[in-house]
Amino acid sequence: MNTLWEFLSMQDANVRFVTIGSVLLAASSAVVGCFTVLRKRALVGDAVAHAVLPGVCLAFLLTGQKNPIIMLLGSFITGWLAVVVMDIITSKSRIKEDTAIGLVLSVFFGIGILLLTAIQHSGNEQQSGLDKFLFGSAAALVGQDLYTFGAVALLLLLSVVLLYKEFKLISFDTNYARTIGLPVKRLELLLTTLTVLAVVVGIQSVGVVLMSAMLITPAAAARFWTDRLGAMVIIAAAMSAVCGAAGAFVSFTAPAMPTGPWIVMLLSLLAIMSFLLAPSKGLLSRFLSQRRVRRQMLRENILKTLFHLGEPTGEYQQSYSKTQILARRQLPLRRMQTQLQTLSRQGFVVKDTQGWALTPAGKKEAQRVVRLHRLWELYLTEYLQVASDHVHEDAESIEHVLTPELEKRLEELLDYPTADPHKTTIPQQTS
Questions:
Q1: Which one of 24, 78, 237, 245 is least enclosed by Cβ atoms within 10 Å?
Q2: pLDDT score for 11
Q3: Residues of 243-270 as b/e, b for ≥16 C-beta within 10 angstroms?
Q4: Does 314 lie in the same domain as 272?
Q5: Please, which pLDDT band fits residue 1 given cuts at 50, 70 and 90?
Q6: Same domain, 44 and 119
Q7: Are residues 300 and 231 in the same domain?
């Protein structure tokens, strides 16, 4: 508790610099990363992250010192050049974008490693710590670095706020944006520039190797929690800010632990949790939803089977044993027994000494499912020219998801039919 309080009080200036810098870098990268992900250019960020290394090395070779502003400028130039080269390769040749990204990433990163090796053997005393740009060293942030990177981070956030609507439009519908007169090329150019800037300011914290994770991971995680871009941007920025502060805290309490990799690790943990636990889109939620749908389909199939058994005689409330139900339709026995109990609790079936029978409410529900099945069979036969002996399986799948609106539309389209392709009566809708 004392350690946490000391951390929160920020008495150490270095702790303050590291924490604020990590939060700003993480949040600004996440905001820009949202648009990168939506535009399906996630790998471009990775290529740019590796392409900034030669810019760092060239800036040092030209100045002989590790001036953060000069290195920022050198990183930006080579990162931007990498984007231009990728665009030229894809537009002027038959090489696809993914191949162009791989080429640019490997070539630029190779040049950067070559220059870095030459610098390390040059004997220049100022080169100490330059290799930190490979893996990042947030703990090395000082006041001057914080002002420089903080200004760039605020510029990124301000640009997104001011041009939010325009960026949103070109991310989802470029053709419409072009139709209403927006300067799409300039906006894309600006968004690419912001992406390069986000990568450039982030390498000080996590390095070129992990920078793409700072750009992409929070956006990918936030995408699981919402369908709205505004909320996605806020969630991604909040996740990154929290992980940035947490990474600085881990580094403060355990000096041997690097800040940047811990930020990425925490972001990755949040992404995994989002993938598993997010409502509606998470793996667990989808599994539960699919299980509910499968159970509902099984219950409707049981009701439909009981309806079919009573259809020849018109005695829909007659009782039928499990053996008779299984003889009519192959169903998993244990699950059928469970769902019969559920249908009984819902008031759709009743059990007596002879077996199971439909209640009036159950007959109405079964009749609805049978009606949808036969309407869809007729639609497939008449409008899609599917042979009548091939429509049953398709109708089996669709009957469970047809809404009342679609049912009404089918009736109108088919001119209120009374029989399906097999000349079987289509049950009429009951009120």
A1: 245
A2: 45
A3: bbbbbbbbbbeeeeebbbbbbbbbbeeb
A4: no
A5: very low
A6: yes
A7: no
